Amino acid sequence: MRTFSFEFFPPRDEIAAVDFGINIGRLLRLSPSFVTVTFGAGGSSRERTFALVDYLQNKVGLNTVAHYTCVDASRKKIEEDLAALHEMGITRLMLLRGDPPKGSDCFQTPTDGFANASELIAFTRSLYGNHFSIGGGAYPERHPEASSAEEDLLNLKRKVDAGCDFLITQFFFDNSRYYNFVAQARAAGITCPIIPGILPLTHFNQLERFVRISGAHIPDSFLQDLETHKGSPEKIAQIGRAYATAQCRDLLLSDAPGLHFFTLNKSRATVEIFESLMGTV
Ligand code: FAD
Fold it and tell me: Which atom of ligand 1 is the closest one to the Cα of 168?
């Protein structure tokens, strides 16, 4: 069955928490299949992530997926954290390697820890069998550290074989990149759902912040539109929403297994896109 899901991050302070509360109320009216909560770089948000996961799962009653990374964590620490999530009643995890901490260029395998997501996933399976449904990250335009798309795909296959039930992709703006990637993954023997990650661009500065860093290709006409209107925040938001809506419609018509929205804890873009998709959904 198709899934519609939202990613949140733990609000940083009380003011952000109030704003988040309002936005989440609006998003929940869309009845998501599940929601996910990110885990800050280097475990920096562990307490806030776990508190939000607990709240959404047990107080709000949502199917909540906890992101978890193995940056800076020993096996013992990971075992304790998994036990805490298990205790909370969490049955779905998004297991990631995580990015190198700020100031460091490359990922350092922690002492008695793991070098990549596959190892973390295999470890989790060895402890909990099939208790958790496990998701992993996938990169239609290849992971920035991978030396080639082919090598990245081989590593992705290893990750799925280690125990992934589903994959969620990094955001992309050119659907043809996603379709090619899915075709290559299927040819490599990856059969699990590959859920496209959608980032509605709503501010011009997101181009720099997210897109240029991730290396996602932006089709020329979309880029030109954004650049032409960069002085008008409202117009940029409108262009971003219209683009993401068209992207989502095309994905649904092409049988994507769902849509996963990187909401950035905001609601307007996602709600409007959903409303425009009624009928396609
Ligand atoms: P891996 O699958 O381990 O891959 C990392 C790199 O190592 C790739 O280049 C891969 O090709 C290579 N590799 C993998 N296995 C091997 C192997 N056996 N031998 C050699 N090379 C190998 N980050 C956070 O900190 N918190 C989050 O909450 C978070 N959420 C995310 C959600 C989604 C949907 C996505 C797509 C990413 C998310 N990230 C998050 C970012 C992620 O942590 C980074 O992209 C990170 O750099 C890679 O994580 P991964 O799990 O994909 O790594």
Answer: 34
Q: Is the CB of 158 inside a 6 Å radius of any atom of ligand 1?
A: yes
- Each residue of 24-57: b (16+ CB within 10 Å) or e? beebbebebbbbbbbbbebbebbebbbebbbebb
Query: How far is it, in rounded angstroms, from Cα 132 to Cα 193?
Result: 16
Q: Cβ(133)–Cβ(165) under 8 Å?
A: yes
**Would you give the DSSP letter of residue 210?**
I
Residue 197 lies inside a defined structural domain of this protein: yes
User: Is the distance from the beta carbon of residue 38 to the nearest atom of ligand 1 less than 6 Å?
Assistant: yes
pTM over 0.90: yes
The pLDDT tens digits of the residues spanning 39-89 come to: 987 677 899 999 999 999 999 999 999 999 999 999 999 999 999 999 999
Domain count, the chain: 1
3-state secondary structure of 104: coil
How far, in Å, is the centroid of ligand 1 from the Cα of 42?
A: 13
Dig out the tokens for 109 from the structure. 């395998």
Question: Is 67 within a domain?
Answer: yes
Cα of 178 from ligand 1 centre, angstroms: 17
Report if residue 38 sits inside a domain: yes
Give, using CA atoms, the residue closest to atom 51 of ligand 1.
Answer: 96
Distance, in Å, from the CA atom of 119 to the CA atom of 124, rounded to the nearest integer, reads 9
Domain that holds residue 135: 3-276
Q: Residue 113 pLDDT > 80, yes or no?
A: yes
Q: What is the CATH classification number for the domain harbouring 51?
A: 3.20.20.220
Residue 281 in any domain: the answer is no
Ligand 1 in reach of 117 Cβ (< 6 A): yes
